[in-house]
Design brief:
The complex is a heterodimer.
Chain A (H helix, E strand, L loop, with lengths): L2 H10 L6 H26 L6 H31 L7 H16 L13 H23 L4 H20 L6 E3 L9 E3 L7 E2 L5 H8 L13 H12 L4 H28 L2 H11 L1 H6 L4 H24 L4 E2 L8 H14 L4 H30 L8 H5 L8 H9 L1 H19 L27 H8 L5
Antiparallel strand pairs in A: 1-2, 3-4
Chain B lengths: L12 H11 L12 H7 L2 H9 L7 E10 L2 E11 L4 E5 L6 H8 L7 E6 L2 E2 L5 H6 L2 E3 L12 H7 L9 H5 L4 H21 L15 H14 L4 E5 L7 H18 L2 E5 L3 H7 L2 E6 L2 E6 L1 H5 L2 H8 L4
Parallel strand pairs in B: 3-8, 3-9, 6-7, 7-8
Antiparallel strand pairs in B: 1-2, 1-4, 4-5, 9-10
Classes of the chains: A mainly alpha, B alpha/beta.
Amino acid sequence: MTVADAIAEQFDRFEDTPQWLVDVGLIAATMGGIYLLFTIFTILGPSRGAFGAIVNNLQSITFWTALYAMMVLALNLHWGYTGLFNIGVAGFMAVGVYAFAALTVPPTANPPGLGLPLWVGLLGGMVAAALVGAVTALPALRLRADYLAIVTVALSEIIRLAFLSTVLERFTLFANVDFVPDVPLGTGAGRGINIPVNPSIPVKALFYTNPSNPASGGRTGFGSLALGVFEAVGVRETVVVSLAYTIVLIAVVAAFYWLLVRVGNSPFGRVLKAIREDELVANSLGKDTRLFKIKVFMLGCALMGLGGILWEAQRGFTDPTSTTFRPIQTFYIFVALIIGGAGSNTGSVLGGALFASLLFQGPLFVSRIVSFLLDLGSAPSSFADAVGPLLALEVGPFLAYTMNNIEDLRFVLLGIVLVYLMQNRPEGLLGHRKEVAASVPLVDRKGNRPREAAADGGGGDGDE
Amino acid sequence: MSDSEGVEQSVESAPDDESEAADGVADESEPVDDVPDEADTTADLEDGNAETGDRSGPPELVVDGLVKRFGGVTAVDGASFEVEEGSLTGLIGPNGAGKSTTFNCITGVHDTDGGTVTFRGEDITGLRTSTIANRGLVRTFQIARELEEMTVLENLMLAPRGQVGESLTRSVVPGLRGRVNAQERQLREEVWDTLELFEIDHLAGEYAGNLSGGQRKLLELARALMVDPDLMLLDEPFAGVNPTLEEKLLDRIHGLRDSQNLTFLLVEHDMDLIMEHCEHVIVMHQGEVLAEGPPTAIRNDDRVIDAYLGDEL
């Protein structure tokens, strides 16, 4: 029995517990384990387990977990539910972010925008991503599944390079149309674009009287209280603000989760599953699958756009070279989904958490700790210099080299994890679970035919 | 001829029917005393017979000059035939005769290269597969294509037409789901009824991919029925099905035909079965309709014997 099987078996032990409770328990247990691990990391690291450092690190892990969980859920809608092989996630994120920027950046800025409120930007970013999704989907969804993959991956690069292009650095919409006012816009090309109105502002407004420039104004009543309390126990104020933003992200993850459960447990979701299993059968049963695919593709892209905004725009600045928009981003999100189990929402969240903590952030922590504890000295500059001393049984330079290049070596780790999963548990942690697509339970607790009276009791799920 | 115990309904009807069809080519002269609709629902033995002999109404399905080419191969080469409402029609022919391709052309899976398909008086040539299915023409596949990682229940719940919950808005927006849930409960009842009728209710919660070959055939037939079709195209529904199960399936088919006036077009290689159960047989050979008529006539047709049956019968 493999480790993965053993873990999965533990997951299956709670058969009589209600599913949602098991899921909450699973996520809580996973996060608990991750927090414990990173607390230990912090204690072993340079800060020697100062409380402020622990809070900072756990905050950061939660932040990345929430970001990845959000994106993995959106991808789960495409790939897990419907079998749409979208490998252009980063591109749809970029569309969301740039549309958000174009809508919210003040007209006086350089590059300029429309200066609209934050919520218009959020909505507009989602709509823009959905529309780009529709344009992609219309031709590609009529072809075989592989073509969608090719189209989306190419599109995501085209989008990124278009934003990088100086042609779009500054341009004027409607310049040649007399009766419409000119609208100056721009991507800023390689210089990037400042996004002063961004999702972090409302969070900062909780703490500061001047949220766009905290240093220049004072603290709000709540701000002085909360920041004061945390500072008293050694937590820096930036960490507290980030923590508040992370809580917003968690709420968004919960909203995504709810939406996906809603979509999945419905006749609509049933058709999505049928498309994933065998589209011809769905067609032969009278389902016009093209409509379903376009709808679900647009919905997923809208979520990706929103995710992109919450991920990237909150920094107040973006540019096309950001790792957020690179194809590797899509790859990361896919890895997280594969770990968690395609088709399972709880699995998606777990996959996001495990990927973000163990594969994405974990190696960096380990590298810092090893360098700190072993005092490896300066790392050799080339691979040869690192391997050479091994012949003399000197592992120091090799270890230093390894730790120094841990960011790149993460790929090796990712590869190993993927190969292991493919061989031993291709369905991921929770991909084996039956998540039945229907809005009412189809069987009673014992798996028999539900009797009307009994079934109606628990059948509504409180959502009428 | 043909007196198997398991199948009561049409055994005796077959000879009648054949003789009628054999000597009366166009039966316009025959007295038409019952409107098809009312006979539909009540159809017992005699009515069923009258029904099949009655050619006054338009045929359920008309295939006219159907052509389908794959590269240089002409799989279907001008095939023309008709299927009467409420009939059990057999489509036979050697491998590569174009039977499955014909099915695919009728159901819109393939684009045709010529000819027309008319279903219940309407031209359905070139329509989308889903549109055709929604009009009431449903097919099963030669190799059962169940949705493997969906449960048996989900497979059946998928099929019914006109599900309000197939709208994304209705499924997601709070407050709009009441009607969806009400319909889901109603469908659940129908699905469980169907499962019990097919005696696969003990498999309800299983993944369809875990079913045996014969059970898959049952599931596929049950699923197609959930669409509530008027005409069913069955592509070798009994391949790999054991004799007891086969008899059960045939019982169901006859029962449905008699109770709901469902029409069946059936591809099958088992000649005994075709001869025993179908009142009309179409023989395809090299993409063309070689012969058609009642089983007795087909059995004695020299060309059919040469091309397909051999000396076996």
